[in-house]
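The passage that follows is intended for readers who have already worked through the single-chain material. We present the inputs for a multi-component assembly, then the predicted structure in tokenized form, and finally a short commentary. You are encouraged to pause after the input and sketch how you expect the pieces to fit together before reading on.
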Amino acid sequence: MNDRIFRAMLYASGAIIFVLIAGIFLTLFISALPSVKALGHSFLFGTRWNPQSVWEGENITLGAVPFLFGTISTSFLSLLISIPFAFSTALLLGEYMKKGFFFAFLKSSVELLSGIPSVIYGFWGFSVVVPIVRAFEIKTGIPPYGVGIMTASLVLAIMIIPYSASIIREVLHLVPTELKEAAYSLGATRYEVIKNVIFPYARSGISAGLLLALGRALGETMAVTMVIGNLNSLPASLTSLHEIHKTIFSPGNTMSSIIALEFNESSGIHLSALIQMGLLLILVTTIINFIGRIYIKKTDKSGKD
Amino acid sequence: MKVKSINRRKAENIIFKGTVIFLSLLTVIPLILILFFVAKKGISIIDLNFFFSLPKPVGQEGGGISNAIVGTMILIALTCLLSIPLGILCGVFLAENRKSRLSFWVRLWVEVLQGVPSIVMGIIAYVWIVRPLKGLFSAFAGSVALSIMMLPMVIKATEETVKLVPVALKEASMSLGVPYYKTVLRVILPVSTSGILTGILIGVSRIAGETAPLLFTAFGNQFMNYNIFKPVNALPLMIYRYATSPYKDWQNIAWGASLFLILFILGINFIASGIAKKWKVQF
Amino acid sequence: MESPVLNTIDFSLYYGETKALDKINIEVPENQVTAIMGPSGCGKTTFIRAINRMHELDSSVRREGEIFLHGKEIHGLDPIGLRRKIGMVFQKPNPFPTMNIYDNVIAGYKLGGIKLSRTERDQIVEDSLKKAALWNEVKDSLHKRGTFLSGGQQQRLCIARSLALNPEILLLDEPTSALDPKATKRIEELIVELKEFVTLMLVTHNMSQAARVSDYTAFFYMGELVEFGKTEKMFTSPDDKKTEEYLTGKFS
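Having made your guess, compare it with the prediction:
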């Protein structure tokens, strides 16, 4: 009898996960509804964000484009910056070394890097990285904000390296040893094995890993908020062909940082719009995670058959 | 047919390896810089008083982080209370029903839950807890946000550990006429303790540094507070507020708090790996 | 033949669509050792696992037919009570790693929630360990972990753990397959001694082991019970051609 109750509890605990997820989405959707109704597609396509307009006139201008731009540019840029480092670390830890002092050092360093709180990355970022970027901007004749998309991407890149490295390592681990040994026995060098055997085999898994890292970068809040400059409009340089290269150095804001900054002071449609931003964020990250995980599960299975 | 000379192939191999090592070393540099910088800035502010006194208004000498430490501890304790029982139960479910369709989907959604941005957890806890209480921020609301983040980690750790328990042990217990629930609670979970505990500690070290979910839930507090239904301060919240303030004194306190938070997190990780090694059950 | 403690009527078992046991009819005599023999995959382990309903741990298994313990159909009983009456020892010794030797022996009581007084517990532990011929070796280290014992000692501890519940039948699933020859010999001697207290059913793929310790032998092949009878008779003049081929090593 107790057994039946216990088994029911086990199943219920599994089912609760669905309820939780459904609850999260439903909550966000319902709370975002007023904004969806009031703003319509001007939320997704509007380039101006003016919370004041909620109180002043009939024409509410709350366009999310500046933040979509900020989120997309910082996450892709940071992913791009992190790729060579994540790959190297994963290869070194997964292929070149399996033990020894340097292995342990690198492994625990990467683990430490992933353990440092986001807010401390942000604090360090604006105390150390911002002055460095500013110095660079002065030298190259770009307006020397210091803060901005580039700075945020640099800090974000450091933060996601451990994450993508660990997933890539996991995927490399799935490559069957027999395949590698077969290639070595044919006289291939380690570089050739990596290039011709390991990468082709692990390619889809690696793409999935990078996708997951992108998902992580999309949602990262504190560090980005502290170094991106918090400008709620599209960079001016975006509209001029001559200045476009300066765009990545200009200040901006991301979806998560606008939520962090304005949520507590908002109400009404403004609050609802911020929640809609959260809904958009969770939808995108969920889709990305879903695809990524399913791909990794596939690589895992093909390795075993 | 073109054949690469053996020397060229060897050179390529060496260059590639060199690049890999070089880039890996570069990865470590930010870590060293961060630790060095936080230590240098933080160490000068930290004394005994720093841990035992409350924050002071701008302009006054001294001031500490005692309320933030207490707040973080309250948040951690509440979060554990909320997430561990359900997490362990769900982990056991996944490990015990490996092939069922339901567990496939539960597993996938748990992984998806792990990828949900932490700021969204803050919104959720705000709508669920803060808003119904007429906008009263509280430690409880903060813990709800943090426990949704911690839940997947407890589930994963439990599932992975329970999976490793030999079937023979479960069969031995069942063959003695022990009911299933007692087999799980008294045989399977005790041998999994070290793995689950390690997972929980790593989870705690993750949530201890989270700021975003606390911004609109725990909110922060200049005073000491033990009531879980009142706003409470937390180390990462305090670091954020003080670091972004224009006052040098406050920024210094933020460095001190950062150093303490990093050491606290490292300490938990250290204990976790100790438990993983020492308490491991031999089958 | 002595009175049967256990008998089956047309007992069949399916894993999904695959038939693992086909209409088994057997009468197991009381306080004797019955060996169950056959090539791997013949269903011998499946059969004894079905006797204390361990197959129900896997939900894809389906059964037909009946098994009677002292004339009572076992599927009508509570599986938990049934398993206390029918003990089981597995291929690999599996003492509970978090418990000491003492607690391992009384695990069936402790985990089953049966309250015993201190003296009762001590008595059960001593009796069971004596029956399992382990008492002299461990009486001074009862509070050490069971996993520190040698493989043979661990297996005897597992036997003691089952005996502690005073079962009517003890199922042994290739209990010596993970042990060295010396430890195997001790277990075989123990099996013969235990007849006094309990009915034993021993699954083995080792023909000479069956010949050494058993009184009756059942020969399984492809999920069917081919032949069952006195061990002496079966090893000297088997009725069935398949049995003869197996015993003479024509297949294994």
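Commentary: Residues 2-39 of chain A form the longest helix (38 residues). Strands of chain A lie at 49-50, 61-62. How closely did your sketch match?
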